[in-house]
Amino acid sequence: VNVVEWNEGLYEKQLIERTMDACRGHVDVVIDFGTTSRSLHRSMQCLSKGGVVFVMKDVADRLLPKFSRRAEELQIKLKPVELGSLEQLNELVELVASGAIEPPPHTVYPAEEAMDVVHKLCHSQIQGRAILRFYPAD
């Protein structure tokens, strides 16, 4: 399983290329719970034929009519998913805590390296999330 974080500050082409590079080609499933027209369009471009994009039901009602024809042309599916419950979130946290599933990778960097970190992120040289650590000024 490959998890690719889409930083909205990047251009569409870069985001699609980053996804295709990380996954070594088109993907079968995209879970797009921050769904906007922009992210749904991007998700659809990353899918292989027969692939599925899962979107939250509340935005699916608004976006699926706009994208259903294009989905048919690409031979992909757009599927709405109901919002999860607190119980499901607790189960997910337990699965991560037990090591049954792994969260997306992250690396912590000192704030002084911010310029270098941003450069590396823009060139897909950092996998997962980059977190800047700021120390209190004493």
UniProtKB/TrEMBL annotation:
Protein name stated in the entry: Alcohol dehydrogenase-like C-terminal domain-containing protein
Matches recorded under InterPro entries: NAD(P)-bd_dom_sf (IPR036291)
